[in-house]
Fold this sequence. Notes:
By secondary structure, the protein is α/β, with parallel strands linked by helices. The chain contains eleven helices and 14 strands. Strand 12 and strand 13 form a beta hairpin.
Amino acid sequence: MIEIQNLTKRYGQIKAVSNLSFTVNKGEILGFLGPNGAGKSTTMNIITGFIPASEGSVKVGGYDIMENPKEAKKHIGYLPELPPLYMDMTITEYLNFVSELKMVDKSKRKAQLDDIMELVRISDVRNRLIKNLSKGYKQRVGLAQALVGSPDVLILDEPTVGLDPKQIIEIRKLIKALGKQHTIILSSHILPEVSAVCERVVIINKGEIAAVDTPENLSKGFGTSSKFSVTIAGPKSSVEGYIRDIYGVKYVEQNLEKEKDVINYIVESDKDIDVRRPLFFAMAKAGYPIIELKSMDMTLEDIFLHLVTDEKGVEQ
Ligand code: ADP
Ligand code: MG
């Protein structure tokens, strides 16, 4: 649905984006993840035809954004980093204005706007001035304007930035729901964001692609250890030794003492050896109950740091 090939963007001497290639399949929600300044907005501005690329090409729905901008743009709904809202209009006035810009058929306009406002749940505030809306509602209006004209592709640049946790959850839900009928690229510098919503992730750093994979595969692919947290009721002096003696355990460290002689440890083991069963039997035999045991799989956060610090030699 979206094909990006060898995209490069220079601002004078600065290369903001360098030789980027990836595709987004129809119906997919793709996460575009990278730290601030990585080149996310630049890439999205090029995909949507807002700025030209220095080199490379973008096709949306089979149309080249430079050669066939009108056709390509019909497929695209764009929510830029700063939504282009008019504060002195009401939601209805604003969305009508956007419909006019996007040349939505006059006869279809009302029904379409009613549907969109219902979908992003702003129907009840439709006659309020945009400047009087909360940040969360303003963002919903931003999403609504992207949906006008029924595009099948949505490009969302950091759609949850600046929202509070409750609003973030609501916008996330909304994006997931939109994903059922749209192809979506969603950018973020926050990792849980993309792992919560996206099926595949492109990690970008300093204008270059650092990895492309599913969130699950990314977390499987690195390191040689697995880590878990275990809480055991028993004196540290003997429990710690028992854990250390289990085959496959590489490292044990006391994390915190929850109450007297109830201690939480962080245990690191060889990735290929599951030490949880022997740990269970060793503790049962010694008479020290395991109160809690949970795995501490590599989070996207860890992977991200691994990719953008270790391999690239870049400090964050
Ligand atoms: P992100 O959205 O990932 O935070 P951007 O795409 O906004 O990153 O920026 C990528 C790089 O390009 C940054 O180093 C930024 O300073 C630079 N940049 C962005 N826009 C311009 C511009 N109009 N002129 C010069 N440099 C720019
Ligand atoms: Mg940005």
